[in-house]
Amino acid sequence: MTERIVVVGAALFDAGRLLAARRSAPPELAGRWELPGGKVEPGESPEAALVRELREELGVDAEAVARVPGEWPLKPPYVLQAWTARLRPGSADPKPLQDHDELRWLAPDEIWDVDWLDQDVAAVRELSARPGGEIR
Predict the structure, then answer these.
(1) Peptide bond into 77 cis (omega under 30)
(2) What does the pLDDT look like over 78-132, one tens digit per residue?
(3) For 69, which DSSP code?
(4) Number of domains within the chain
(5) What are the residues whose beta carbons fall under 8 Å from the beta carbon of 35, sequence distance 6 or more?
(6) Residues 83, 65: contact at Cβ < 8 Å?
(7) Which terminus of the chain faces fewer neighbouring Cβ atoms within 10 Å, N or C?
(8) Nearest CA-CA partner of 53 in 68, 39, 64, 43
């Protein structure tokens, strides 16, 4: 049996808005929106991977806050875990450095205005259903 590989996605919040990132590659994902993040490397915790991926993809200094309940299948053996995250004080503003060609901060009433990747739909739905969550 192949061991599963965890991909972390960041529900990065600022003033109640959620950051969405539009994929520029690969071609089958280009133009769709996702929670930024990436693969957890061997020996790395999901939280550390999230911080590293946000630095590499967006040029920000962020911290993981809490894991969003649930786990969503990607192309086997990959699975998606989502984490809430926030920018650390003094962090640069996010910029699309790799894998993305546009970023958008979405207010709670704009969450469904973008074409989310299928697996991210489930994660965003879970975020929006959380009592006392950041998205309402």
Answers:
(1) yes
(2) 999 999 999 999 999 999 998 899 999 999 999 999 999 988 999 999 887 765 4
(3) S
(4) 1
(5) 9, 10, 11, 12, 19, 20, 21, 82, 120, 123, 124
(6) yes
(7) N
(8) 39
Question: Is residue 86 exposed (0-12), middle (13-18) or buried (19+ Cβ within 10 Å)?
Answer: middle
Whole-prediction pTM: 0.90
Report how far residue 136's alpha carbon sits from residue 12's, in angstroms, rounded to the nearest whole number.
15
pLDDT band at 52 (very low <50, low <70, confident <90, very high): very high
Angle at 36 between CA 1 and CA 80, to 5 degrees: 25
Range of the domain at 18: 5-129
Position 134 in a domain = no
Give the ranges where the chain is alpha helix by DSSP (H): 46-58, 118-129
